[in-house]
Amino acid sequence: MPLPSTYKQYIFDERPTQYITPTTFKSETKSTSDLKVGPGQVLIKVSWISLDPAMRSWLNDSKRAYTPPVKLGEVMRAAGLGVVAQVGEGSKFSVGDEVSGVVGWREYVVLDDKSVTELPTIPGAKALDFLGPLGHVGMTAYFGLIDIGKIKAGETLFVSGAAGAVGSVTCQIGKILGLKVVAIAGSDDKVEWLKKDIGVDVAINYKAPDFKEQVTAAGFADVYFDNVGGDILNLMMTRMAMKGRIVLCGAISDYNGKSKGLANYTSLIAQRARIEGFVVMDYTKEYPVAMKAITEWIEKGLLKRKFHIVDGLDAAPSALPLLYSGGNTGKLVVKVSEHEAIAKL
Ligand SMILES: NC(=O)c1ccc[n+]([C@@H]2O[C@H](COP(=O)([O-])OP(=O)(O)OC[C@H]3O[C@@H](n4cnc5c(N)ncnc54)[C@H](OP(=O)(O)O)[C@@H]3O)[C@@H](O)[C@H]2O)c1
To answer: Which of 29, 165, 178, 285 is most buried when burial is the number of CB atoms within 10 A of its CB?
Structure first.
């Protein structure tokens, strides 16, 4: 596969004090002749990158984060998809293979074979699904619900961040497995989409003046899948059913500033309820179980997917903040390059 003489990448250039700004990242143009493919390595032409809320926490100088921070001057980390453009001696890959890996914000990357996965062919699935329900997004929804939420048919499941990547898959798994699903999201358009397309039982706009009354009218939660933390978590603390389970998946309302802190937690005592965090990577060995279930749901047409696509690597720095302002519906991804096979899937 012929290479251009140069390629672009984005490095982390200035630590934000609160919100990501236009000077947080800086573009660099590099010579492709610097890309040396060693034994057991591949050169990947990047097609798609995933934008994820955790990226904001990677920009903090944290000591106890479960993923190490990105250092100043490093290429911004990101999961993504691509096509193998060159192989090193003894590599198990072939030119043209479609793969996933931690590719970063760049157009070309050299990775070791062991950190690259070939995309399997799954009837009814598109390549992009490996950044959605068949990737970390789907795994998070599945293990959060099954292992931490211990959901049972007939129960009531509340989901915040419901129109986002993890939230929209969580709502659908809840419906497929026979729960009543109450979705919470930040606009009337998202609420309509959740009701009409995603098929939840109740959808509530948390910016509506009568939000609390609508939550009360929806009943108590056996399981609350929390993607946002803050005020919504503090309200849901008071809305748990006996032996209820709060799944602490994420707290996006806290990612750009100081945490509001936990309130109302004493309500959990009377309800014998619990709250538990989890990190999806801890389930890596069990991913095949979730992949099998999610693949079947995709094949049966039970799982809808929505991607919010922004075009071109240059759009990544300004697209990432959409996650914190509610600008995305479904999974936010950047299309870095056209690849025939991936594009036609
Ligand atoms: N535990 C794990 O292993 C794990 C793995 C992956 C992701 N996560 C977490 O899962 C959550 C969802 O991630 P995702 O990739 O699916 O992102 P996403 O939901 O696609 O995008 C983020 C959404 O969060 C909502 N939001 C932003 N600020 C908010 C605020 N202050 N209050 C309420 N809602 C707010 C916005 O929707 P609205 O318009 O509705 O406000 C926005 O669209 C994140 O917290 C992420 O960190 C955890």
So the answer is: 165
